[in-house]
Amino acid sequence: MKRKTLLTLITLQLAAAGAMATHAIEPVDKELIPEARGVLHYLESVYGKKTLVGQNKTGDAKKAFEASGKWPAIVSVDLCGWSKEKWDAGYKRNIQTSVDAQKAWWKERGGIVSMEWHWANPMGTGGDFKNTQPKKGERPDVGKMVTPGTAEFTAAMEDMKRHADYLEQLRDAHVPVLWRPLHEIEGGWFWWTDMETPENTAKLWRMMFEYLVKERKLHNLIWVYSSALKAGDKDKDVEAIAYRQRFYPGSNYVDIAGIDIYVNKWFGWPDYRESAYPKAYEIMTKVAPGKMLALCECQGIPNPDLIAKDGPHWLYCLPWYVGSKPDWNPPEWVKQVYPHEQLVTLDELPRFEK
């Protein structure tokens, strides 16, 4: 059977698996490749019933396996090269390593691929974490960045172009990607959060979408919108719904939405072992109505007993570490919850890649 025919059948079968839904989700990229449509339709088929286990960083995915005997269903890596100087040899090598790892995760393991992007300030030369959070006086003007003809716009587009060259490799290999740019979008710590005029940040999202999808033809990306545990300078008002909504680029630019939640007594977020974060879910139903909702980042896997009993039924959860800090998803917790019937691990996924 020819590859194209086989992939079409897989897509149809996965859509049929979601027969409880009234219709299959239509991706925001109308030219989304069959492999990515298959993933999206599978996610729709389990949403509200099961929660996929994810893990940030390939090394921590291995730690999860060593703790539980099971691999996560989703592994996420970063498009950032994590080097002191952007585009030095180390920066490029690190991105290539991430791309190669995600190809293997999809093609050899049959797992779902996710990527976030700690986008270092396009107006600077640094390529490490501190350059995603420049000092107040060094933050770029997001309004100018979305305005053609400015130096900020030119720098952003050039930086986007060079990173897109790596995403192209995944497209050419037919690897679907849960693509999560501008994450924690309204939090205020990353440079892309325009706290005074949030509409500029929403426009930046749309600008990226138009470039990556329509100009670069990256039709393997499933667009994931990611909110923060708090909104800008709203103090303890973690809801701030009207303010959060101003960052949202619109339903035509988002396939999946979610929020990043870390244990934080100040903002009222409890220990993940004692909560399934219903308040966070409620916030996102108002910010991104009609979208499947995920815990795009979390300190640890939320208690699956609570998810199963009372919900909310997150689409997936994606912890950042396994046991690198005492209260950050410790190995004993991973071992306890990975086998839970509420959670989907790698061995329970359909085989997308044939």
CATH uppermost class: Alpha Beta
Radius of gyration: 19 Å
Average pLDDT, to the nearest integer? 93
Helical content, roughly? 25-40%
Q: What is the number of strand segments? A: 11
Low-confidence stretches: 1-23
Global geometry: globular
Task: Count the domains.
Answer: 1
CATH architecture: Alpha-Beta Barrel
Biggest sheet architecture: 8 strands, parallel, barrel
The tally of helices reads 11
- Residues in β-strands, percent: 5-15%
- CATH fold-level topology: TIM Barrel
Give the end-to-end Cα distance, rounded to a whole number of Å: 11 Å
Order of helices and strands: HHEHEEHEEHHEHEHEHEHEHE
Q: For the record, what is the CATH homologous superfamily label?
A: Glycosidases
Structural class: alpha/beta
Q: Strand order across the biggest sheet?
A: 1-2-4-6-7-8-9-10
Topology of this structure?
Blueprint: H1 3-17, H2 34-46, E1 51-56, H3 58-68, E2 74-78, E3 83-85, H4 89-109, E4 112-116, E5 126-127, H5 142-145, H6 151-172, E6 177-180, H7 198-215, E7 221-227, H8 241-245, E8 256-261, H9 278-287, E9 292-298, H10 304-310, E10 316-319, H11 331-337, E11 343-344
Parallel strand pairs: 1-2, 1-10, 1-11, 2-4, 4-6, 6-7, 7-8, 8-9, 9-10
Antiparallel strand pairs: 3-5
Helix pairs in contact: 1-2, 3-11, 4-6
